[in-house]
Each structure stands twice: as structure tokens, then as C-alpha cells.
Amino acid sequence: MNLDSIRKNAFAMPVHNPAYPRPPYRFINREYFIISYETDCDALRAIVPEPLLPENNLVHYEFIRMPDSSGFGEYTESGQVIAVRDPQGRLGSYTHSMYLDDEGPIAGGRELWGFPKKLARPTLSVDGNDTLLGTLDYGTQRIATGTMGFKHVPIDIEAERKKLADTPNYLLKVIPHVDGSARVCELVRFYLRDVSVLGAWSGPAALELHPHALAPVADLPVKRVVGARHVIANLTLDIGEVAFDYLASTEVAATGNARSLINR
Predict the structure, then answer these.
(1) Nearest Cα to 52, choosing from 238, 186, 235, 237?
(2) Where are the domains of the chain?
(3) Smaller CB count within 10 Å for the chain: N or C?
(4) What CATH code would you report for 20-260?
(5) Three-class SS of residue 165?
(6) Spatial distance between the Cα atoms of 243 and 221, rounded to a whole number of angstroms
(7) Can 162 be counted among the known catalytic residues?
(8) 205-247 per-position pLDDT tens digit
(9) Active site residue: 117, 118, 151, 173, which one?
């Protein structure tokens, strides 16, 4: 490969046969099972990166089934999302943890946007005849179990569409240098586009989290489940944008003025 061809064709690793195609990615019949629960406020403040601020003491634990995703095929993921406020006062979502069972979206999600993805074994299915069941195993250990009454109460489809389409989503992206230091350390913002919700329901729900050294979902403990949603949607995961560069703004961030720089 000559210099020009490398510059023109380099996209992702491995360079001759990347683990994933170029974005954006379209998802058909994407199925969400989201359990919202109260947790410890101090624990939330310790993990939400400035210049974002936790909106409340809620965590949204998600099990997501992707039966048809362009470039990635079929896979399932599970993790924790936190409601935050950005410096402009907008309500957004910060993805704290994600566990999934497919190498392509793990590599693509981490390298492109900075999704905090790790390999594990999540599932989402109907258990028996009447229960929506989500599970997450890390290695041989069960670390999360969520249940919900299956399609008990229909909820507003348009309201769920607006949540998915209008909410800015934030990620903390880190890529190391060859010496092990951070070469990229950015707050990334992205949106979901072309969203259509096919169905949405609520119902009684329960969530159990177990401690694990390498999959510490229980570090945000469940104090009380406040609600649950089951949503099926078609959508496009759009490309992201850098909302804040921590390495370029080290001095400013240290003075406490980081919030004024986001979006510049």
C-alpha cells in the first residue's frame, strides 16, 4: 500500500477488512425493555462526566434486542443509561455501561462513537406466556435479571418516538496512544434519526443486579423500581459529533469553566 491509498482507504481495523461497515446504521424492529429505578445520588455524581450533570437519582436499565441491523446483523445488548442536563439546559441521556454479544457492533460502537461496550451474554425474550424477561450473564455469572408483565398497558407511541428522536445522547470516548496515555478523550453527542415506533407498553416490573468485579452494574444499586417500558421501533443510528474535547480543554476544565466551552 502506498501513502495515498492508505490515506484514501483507511477507515477502521483491520485496515484491509474492517470489522464493521461505515455508518449510519439502520435498525428494524429494534426492541427495548427499559426499567427505571432509583439509585444512590453520590454514586451517580461520581460517574457522570462534567460538563454534564445528573438530572435526578434515576437509572434506566436497558435490555435491547436487534433482530435486523444493517452491517451488524442480529444481536442483543444490555446496560445502564442516566438522565443528564448539558450546559445548554437540554435533557439528555448518558450511556454508562453496555454489554453485548457480537464483535462487530462492539468494535464499531467503541471506535466510532465511544460506546462503553464489553463482551457478555444478554438475552431478551418472553418467559412462559406472560412475562418479558431480560438477562445479562458475564462469563458464567448472572449479573442482571429484569422482568415485566407482557404488554399490560399501551402507552403513547408519539411520546416514545419523541423521546428516541429528540433526546441528545452522550458518550465518553477514550482511545489510547501507543504509550498507553489517552490520545482521544472526548464527550461525544449523537441522535437517533428516522424514528418510527411500532408499539409501546408499560407494566409491573422488577430488577435484580448482582456485584461483579468486571461488570459492576450493581455499583448503581436498585433502591426502588419506578417504572418500565417495552418499545418496538425502527430507527437509524446517526454519526456523532464532538461535544467537548477534554485534552484540548484541560486548563479550562481545571478552572471550573468547562461548561462554557461545550458546543463551541
Answers:
(1) 186
(2) 20-260
(3) C
(4) 2.40.400.10
(5) helix
(6) 29
(7) no
(8) 999 999 999 999 999 999 999 999 999 999 999 999 999 999 9
(9) 117
